[in-house]
């Protein structure tokens, strides 16, 4: 909802705008002076002019960050950006992708448009091939409102001008036209202002492909991680072994709406990880400091000062969108909690999701608000482009091109969206435009015995398989998919990289990656295909075009089981596809190639319960992941630039990694350990909590579980952007645990002061310090180091460097260009040769580590005592406040021991640990 201000209020606001514009001008003058004085250092030449898109700040408010875009004659130039850090009105960092001698590269480019924005909008619709315009919208730049494509001739569209680099290398003048399809694309298109031609297009809608752990099949020979040589401490304790530093306060001015929700609480990832709870007024944060702004000061149901009784509020509107209308206008699409705001609805997971729709919409509403509030505490606030309909007069930014530019952008969260399956997505326009989250239903369990071989001698039987998500596996009552199994044969030519794969040699003719030469044999039969160098969808399309009625993909990795994947189909697939293991499939391929006959059918005889769909709205990891795309999009390059993390432009950008990291943090259990494997998307894939999930490996600091490093970016199984993000998230997840090991753990996710909170804050401020257009792993590491300098005076430089070096982003690592993920040079060196001797620093810190950690504290029935060294046998004594010994016990402190305190009354006690070499005491609270 956008504002309609009165004349008096508008006048006041405009005065405020002019005041802030003056401040912005001062900042621009400081930056211009800096550029003039440091051109040689910045490697700049020619006339340099720029526009300040926005100015944000770090969590240390003494630091401002200005986001610039290079201009020519006042018109912005695409992909020419700078991130400038200022402290005390001085530039302390200037990183850029500005273009040298820009004026020479614009020779012949138009200086003024011949077409109107409306004409450019019409040209964009045509160039994008859109014919059904009923639900297509175009975003108006001035109002941030959508204009229906069918009404374009009756409306006035405004659009900004950009100089854009065309395919021939020349720069042309374009309009930026954002076209929103109902599903799934939000196209950021650049239209030539003279010819109406489409110069470029990028999709602002980030589709996460949660059903595809491996979109491009891997050649296992390219993926030998066992050669890495790293040492890991595998005896680290759970987070509860770290001293809690949660603080309390007496803040009393929060406006409570008193709402109650039956939903999943913080730290519970999915229904297989824990249960729902009655959450009483969760917008009221118990640890809210008196000196910090409240994330949701009027609760979660305030909208322009009016209390909403449904799943709508200042931060998010969560509604059912099974008809893909992209609107909450239909009756019942929002869930009503009544005057008492009681949102308690049944959830029966044995039923189809439409039966418990109200419960899932409530959960989606709660978790969007959770993510909003948690990340508000870490600096995703009004000044940095967060998602709110009303900013509660807390926006202090220096750059307001329009009065309401930063308002009116709460999340439109669409539950059980009808536009797709087995996926989720998030689209983020510039500040002031509503982002959209689409959450989908997920199909049947991918695991079963879907291959039945018969009349084939020793091969007869049922085979463990995985189903691919494109076509239902037929059941007994459906028409059979049966016939001879035929090994596909292609021409062995080089693979072109179709359907999102990586181009390259494809010598194995059994992998079905190129032109098929035995189509006649495949026609009417079931194609058997080896997993190889191309995408799964490429194999299926080739088999389908040859007339095959089904596909069996044989994994090429021993001991891995059937391939678990899918990919994103660019065209409809009409034949069922399953996968079997290498151990089962390789003998079949050998027999078939030797002239033997094998007959089989693809069939699903599994329990009907396995066919019940799952709802992504109950997977909190997916919700946090999707919202995380909005956070990273708004923070990298500033709130008014939405195209810094476009994977088609920048292969090494880490957007998927930040989103996975946010999901891991939001769903981390208090009993988790650093080495504990964490899969992503296990629930919706029908797996258990230890399932492999959707990434190439599970997240863990243990290299025996996840040994991916920076040198693996070019591997075939590492896709763009999901595989790239996976490796980035692996690194910062390691950093998260390293900070917990150093500073302890604080269970307060909002305002705690433990290592977990510190690491999350560094990641958030690091996002703000990224350079749009140069987003890669080394740039990301350096941004976190700069954040540490701003927040903690660089105290953690060596800790950060050691974590990144362990995964190949060492001091001498070379990023290359962000455009390519293939040109990096990994390095495992910790210390910068021109900087701090981190080896000496880390050795000194190791000597000073605490010998014992005692947790939890407060405790109830038991206390755990962890020895950071092998302390052997020790005597543990507990004394009450009167000095009476109430417990005395000999325990073995090889690592962690447990002390039973169930018989102790509530109160304060002193724990004393006596070893041969030392005595250690600590106050503990029993509650």
TrEMBL record:
<dbReference type="GO" id="GO:0008270">
    <property type="term" value="F:zinc ion binding"/>
</dbReference>
<dbReference type="GO" id="GO:0005615">
    <property type="term" value="C:extracellular space"/>
</dbReference>
<keyword id="KW-0865">Zymogen</keyword>
<feature type="signal peptide">
    <location>
        <begin position="1"/>
        <end position="24"/>
    </location>
</feature>
<keyword id="KW-0479">Metal-binding</keyword>
<dbReference type="Pfam" id="PF18962">
    <property type="entry name" value="Por_Secre_tail"/>
</dbReference>
<dbReference type="GO" id="GO:0004222">
    <property type="term" value="F:metalloendopeptidase activity"/>
</dbReference>
<dbReference type="InterPro" id="IPR026444">
    <property type="entry name" value="Secre_tail"/>
</dbReference>
<dbReference type="Pfam" id="PF02128">
    <property type="entry name" value="Peptidase_M36"/>
</dbReference>
<comment type="similarity">
    <text>Belongs to the peptidase M36 family.</text>
</comment>
<keyword id="KW-0732">Signal</keyword>
<dbReference type="Pfam" id="PF02225">
    <property type="entry name" value="PA"/>
</dbReference>
<keyword id="KW-0482">Metalloprotease</keyword>
<protein>
    <submittedName>
        <fullName>Metalloprotease, putative</fullName>
    </submittedName>
</protein>
<dbReference type="InterPro" id="IPR003137">
    <property type="entry name" value="PA_domain"/>
</dbReference>
<dbReference type="InterPro" id="IPR011096">
    <property type="entry name" value="FTP_domain"/>
</dbReference>
<keyword id="KW-0964">Secreted</keyword>
<keyword id="KW-0378">Hydrolase</keyword>
<dbReference type="GO" id="GO:0006508">
    <property type="term" value="P:proteolysis"/>
</dbReference>
<dbReference type="InterPro" id="IPR001842">
    <property type="entry name" value="Peptidase_M36"/>
</dbReference>
<feature type="domain" description="PA">
    <location>
        <begin position="509"/>
        <end position="586"/>
    </location>
</feature>
<keyword id="KW-0862">Zinc</keyword>
<dbReference type="Pfam" id="PF07504">
    <property type="entry name" value="FTP"/>
</dbReference>
<feature type="domain" description="FTP">
    <location>
        <begin position="67"/>
        <end position="95"/>
    </location>
</feature>
<dbReference type="InterPro" id="IPR046450">
    <property type="entry name" value="PA_dom_sf"/>
</dbReference>
<dbReference type="InterPro" id="IPR050371">
    <property type="entry name" value="Fungal_virulence_M36"/>
</dbReference>
<dbReference type="InterPro" id="IPR027268">
    <property type="entry name" value="Peptidase_M4/M1_CTD_sf"/>
</dbReference>
<keyword id="KW-0645">Protease</keyword>
<feature type="domain" description="Secretion system C-terminal sorting">
    <location>
        <begin position="854"/>
        <end position="926"/>
    </location>
</feature>
């Amino acid at each position: 909802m956008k504002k309609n201000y009165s004349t008096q209020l508008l006048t006041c606001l405009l005065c405020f705008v002019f005041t802030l514009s003056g401040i912005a001008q001062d900042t621009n003058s400081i930056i211009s002076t800096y550029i003039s004085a440091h051109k040689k250092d910045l490697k700049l030449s020619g006339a340099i002019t720029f526009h300040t898109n926005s100015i944000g700040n770090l969590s240390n408010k003494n630091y401002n960050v200005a986001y610039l875009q290079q201009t020519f004659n006042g018109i912005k130039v695409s992909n020419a950006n700078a991130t400038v850090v200022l402290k005390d009105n001085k530039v302390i960092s200037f990183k850029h992708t500005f273009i040298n001698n820009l004026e020479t590269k614009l020779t012949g480019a138009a200086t003024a448009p011949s077409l109107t924005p409306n004409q450019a909008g019409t040209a964009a619709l045509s160039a994008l091939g859109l014919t059904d315009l009923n639900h297509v919208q175009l975003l108006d730049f001035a109002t941030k409102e959508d204009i229906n494509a069918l009404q374009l001739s009756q409306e006035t569209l405004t659009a900004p001008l950009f100089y854009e680099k065309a395919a021939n290398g020349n720069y042309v003048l374009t309009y930026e036209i954002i076209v929103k399809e109902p599903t799934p694309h939000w196209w950021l298109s650049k239209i030539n202002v003279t010819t109406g031609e489409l110069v470029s297009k990028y999709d602002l809608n980030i589709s996460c492909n949660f059903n595809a752990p491996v979109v491009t099949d891997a050649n296992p020979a390219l993926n030998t991680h066992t050669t890495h040589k790293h040492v890991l401490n595998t005896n680290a304790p759970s987070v509860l072994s770290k001293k809690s530093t949660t603080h309390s306060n007496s803040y009393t001015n929060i406006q409570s709406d008193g709402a109650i929700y039956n939903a999943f609480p913080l730290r519970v990832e999915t229904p297989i990880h824990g249960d729902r709870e009655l959450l009483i007024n969760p917008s009221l944060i118990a640890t809210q400091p008196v000196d910090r702004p409240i994330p949701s000061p009027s609760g979660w149901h305030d909208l322009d000062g009016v209390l909403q009784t449904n799943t709508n509020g200042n931060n998010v509107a969560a509604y059912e969108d099974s008809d893909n209308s992209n609107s909450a206008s239909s009756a019942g699409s929002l869930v009503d909690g009544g005057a008492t705001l009681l949102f308690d609805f049944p959830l029966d997971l044995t039923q189809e999701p439409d039966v418990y729709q109200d419960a899932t919409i409530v959960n989606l509403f709660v978790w969007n608000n959770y993510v909003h509030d948690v990340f508000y505490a870490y600096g995703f606030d009004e000044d940095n482009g967060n998602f709110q309909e009303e900013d509660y007069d807390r926006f202090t930014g220096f750059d307001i091109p329009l009065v309401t530019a930063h308002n009116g952008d709460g999340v439109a969260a669409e539950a059980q969206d009808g536009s797709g399956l087995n996926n989720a997505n998030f689209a983020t326009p510039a500040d002031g435009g509503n982002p959209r989250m689409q959450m989908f239903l997920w199909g049947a369990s991918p695991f079963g015995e879907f291959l039945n071989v018969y009349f084939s001698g020793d091969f007869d039987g049922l085979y463990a398989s995985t189903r691919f998500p494109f076509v239902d596996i037929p059941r007994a009552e459906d028409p059979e998919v049966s016939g001879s199994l035929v090994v596909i044969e292609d021409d062995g030519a080089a693979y072109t990289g179709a359907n999102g794969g990586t181009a390259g040699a494809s010598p194995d003719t059994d992998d079905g990656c190129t032109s098929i030469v035995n189509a006649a044999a495949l026609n009417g039969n079931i194609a058997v295909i080896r997993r190889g160098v191309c995408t799964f969808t490429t194999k299926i399309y080739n088999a389908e075009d040859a007339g095959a009625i089904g596909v069996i993909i044989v994994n090429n990795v021993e001991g891995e089981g059937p391939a678990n994947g899918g990919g994103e189909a660019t065209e409809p697939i009409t034949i069922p596809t399953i996968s079997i293991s290498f151990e089962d499939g390789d003998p079949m391929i050998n027999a078939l190639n030797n002239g033997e006959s094998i007959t089989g059918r693809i069939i699903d005889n599994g329990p009907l319960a396995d066919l019940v769909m799952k709802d992504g709205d109950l997977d909190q990891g997916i919700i946090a992941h999707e919202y995380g795309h909005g956070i990273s999009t708004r923070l990298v390059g500033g709130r008014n630039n939405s195209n810094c993390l476009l994977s088609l432009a920048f292969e090494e950008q880490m957007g998927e990694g930040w989103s996975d990291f946010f999901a891991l943090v939001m769903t981390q259990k208090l009993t988790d350990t650093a080495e504990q494997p964490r899969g992503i998307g296990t629930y919706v894939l029908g797996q258990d909590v230890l399932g492999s999930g959707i990434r190439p490996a599970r997240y863990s600091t243990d290299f025996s579980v996840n040994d991916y490093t920076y040198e693996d970016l070019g591997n075939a199984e590492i896709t763009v952007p999901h595989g790239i993000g996976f490796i980035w998230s692996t690194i910062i997840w390691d950093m998260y645990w390293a900070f917990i090991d150093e500073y302890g753990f604080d269970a307060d996710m909002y305002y705690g002061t433990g290592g977990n909170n510190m690491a999350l804050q560094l990641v958030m401020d690091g996002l703000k310090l990224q350079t749009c257009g140069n987003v890669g792993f080394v740039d990301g590491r350096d941004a976190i180091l700069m954040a540490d300098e701003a927040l903690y005076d660089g105290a953690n430089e060596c800790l950060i460097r050691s974590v990144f070096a362990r995964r190949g982003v060492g001091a001498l690592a070379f990023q290359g260009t962000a455009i390519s993920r293939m040109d990096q040079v990994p390095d495992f060196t910790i210390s910068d040769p021109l900087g701090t001797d981190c080896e000496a620093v880390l050795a000194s810190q190791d000597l000073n580590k605490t010998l014992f950690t005692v947790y939890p504290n407060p405790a109830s029935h038991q206390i755990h005592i962890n020895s950071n060294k092998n302390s052997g046998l020790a005597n543990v004594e507990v004394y009450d406040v009167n000095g009476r010994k109430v417990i005395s016990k000999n325990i073995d402190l090889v690592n962690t021991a447990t002390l039973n305190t169930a018989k102790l009354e509530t109160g304060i006690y002193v724990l004393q640990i006596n070893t041969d070499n030392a005595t250690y005491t600590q106050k503990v609270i029993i509650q």
